[in-house]
Amino acid sequence: MSFKPFAVSLLALSLAACGNSETATNTVKTAGDTAKSAAQSAVSSGRDQIKIVGSSTVYPFATTVAENFGRTTKFKTPIVESTGSGGGLKLFCSGLGANHPDVTNASRRIKASEVERCASNGIDDIVEVKIGYDGIVLANSRKSAPMELGLKDIFLALAKNVPDGNGGTVENPYRTWKDVNPALPDTKIEVMGPPPTSGTRDAFVELAMEGGCKKFGWIKELKSSDKTAYKTLCHTIREDDGFVEAGENDNLIVQKLNANPSAFGIFGFSFLDQNADSVQGSIVDGKPPTFENIADGSYPVSRSLYFYAKKDNVGVVPGIVEYLSEFTSERASGPDGYLAEKGLIPMNDAERNMWKTSVANLEPLSLD
């Protein structure tokens, strides 16, 4: 009998502990929900205009849609800022609230690490919008002859380290294009390109640099045995005067090419298209960077373009759904749409309609 009170006490303590654990869990959930609600309230009370950041490549398309959206709807013209894809996603994923953007543009797909960063800051529902395609060009002034290059030539000209011919690597010794390939001009290698925060840079090293890097059999085999070493070798750009980071302003690169006809610049096809009177794109692996070659994927340095929106801000910041609808409309991103006139390569009808439906339903991002 003397043990009964002790047993009851243990039971009471156990129930209390369970109750405290459940209360703690509920408190955490409530705190998270409260924080999200507070952030939404801050957006609602602090801003009535969509805020957009991100890719310099998508920037001209986004500003065109934003301006058209402001003219033809009851909503204010969205604020669009060019920060680069990586910089935009960093801002986008920093949190909810009036101080953080609603939309970020990207000239590459969002990375799993960026999705995790978003989630850690309460951004769980992201709407992915694919808008079309773009090619990355290696362009020079029309004052000079056009260049015909292979992906292997591009890698050898711009990589920090290159094969030494004996199964190893050496710091890039090439100073002229003729050093890289005897068939090329005896002209100093001078290439201006975007910084590491740029989606254009990410896509360029993946498509052009890696594309040329794996032309070497032993390097291609390295991918399966040491993926880190493979990526470091194929993706690292030289740091001497052969390559100069020119910021996120692609228009500035075009201006510098006109001032220095022997130099080359890396930027999106849309800027080439808009400045075709003064600059020309290099032929890569036998394919010129044309609308048709990028659309059918035969031009080897082609990529998809995206933007991402916070579903939590829909209905809080006015006009987000309508902006998404305008961007994915036939009149904007269709084959005869006003963005095609700006250089956007449209998706085919089936793919465009699939994305339009997905966006209209605000389907959540899936990286599977």
Structure description:
Strands 1, 2, 3, 4, 8, 9, 10, 11 and 13 form a 9-stranded mixed β-sheet that branches. A two-stranded parallel ribbon has the order 5-12. With 368 residues, it is of the alpha/beta class. It folds into 2 domains: 40-133 and 304-360, D-Maltodextrin-Binding Protein, domain 2; 135-303, D-Maltodextrin-Binding Protein, domain 2 (3-Layer(aba) Sandwich). The chain contains 15 helices and 13 strands. Residues 1-32 have low confidence and may be disordered. It is globular, with a radius of gyration of 26 Å. β1, α2 (59-72) and β2 (79-80) form a beta-alpha-beta unit.
Would you spell out the secondary-structure blueprint of this structure?
Layout: H1 4-46, E1 51-54, H2 59-72, E2 79-80, H3 85-92, E3 103-106, H4 112-120, E4 126-141, E5 148-149, H5 151-158, E6 161-163, E7 169-171, H6 177-180, E8 191-193, H7 199-213, H8 217-225, H9 227-235, E9 243-245, H10 250-259, E10 264-268, H11 269-274, E11 279-281, E12 283-284, H12 291-295, E13 302-310, H13 320-327, H14 330-333, H15 349-360
Helix pairs in contact: 2-13, 5-7, 7-9, 8-9
Question: What attributes characterize this protein structure?
Answer:
about 15% strand; about 375 residues; two-stranded parallel ribbon; 9-stranded mixed sheet; D-Maltodextrin-Binding Protein, domain 2; 15 helices; alpha/beta; disordered N terminus; 2 domains
